[in-house]
Specification:
Blueprint lengths: L1 H13 L10 E5 L2 E8 L2 H11 L7 E8 L15
Parallel strand pairs: 2-3
Antiparallel strand pairs: 1-2
Length: 82
Amino acid sequence: MLGEVEESVRSRFHNSPYFALRDIGCTYQDRILTLCGRLPTYYLKQLAQSMVADLDGVADVVNQIEVVTPRDRTVVGRGEGR
């Protein structure tokens, strides 16, 4: 069951139109699925959790995905000293 659940998670994320989900990892132990990785929005974090919550053998999903946003937003066309 262990490998089947993790493979199902990978398959669901890989087949999603949201490419960022393809980098999300997971572990499965004692019927608890833990998601980990980084995504750019809270929407994608919640989407990832909802996509796997109904898998057979999963009693609970622990969502440890970190939401990270671009820290350094450079304005195009602006050089230093302007």
